[in-house]
Amino acid sequence: MAQASREESENKRAELDVRHRTEWRQVAVLRQEALSRRHTDPVEAFNRLKVAKITAEITMLQQNGERRAWGMEMSFDSAQLAEMSDAQLEAIAAGKMPR
Question: What's the confidence (pLDDT) of residue 81?
């Protein structure tokens, strides 16, 4: 049961990574479209760059929230590892934040 639950969680995290990469490719396409117009229509290029920038900012905010919600963005001082108990180290290995 725990194994199936862990595998399901790992699969969902992998799906999240794939979707996040796809979303950044979409931002790159918007940016490239804008840059390709910079010589022929600078005003349109600038407007498209604004859309690309806003899309990138929204994408970053959403993805950061999703990664935090899934515990994928852990931040702690690695110098503390030597002082942690086995239980705390096991929690980190399981993808949980140390307490």
Answer: 76
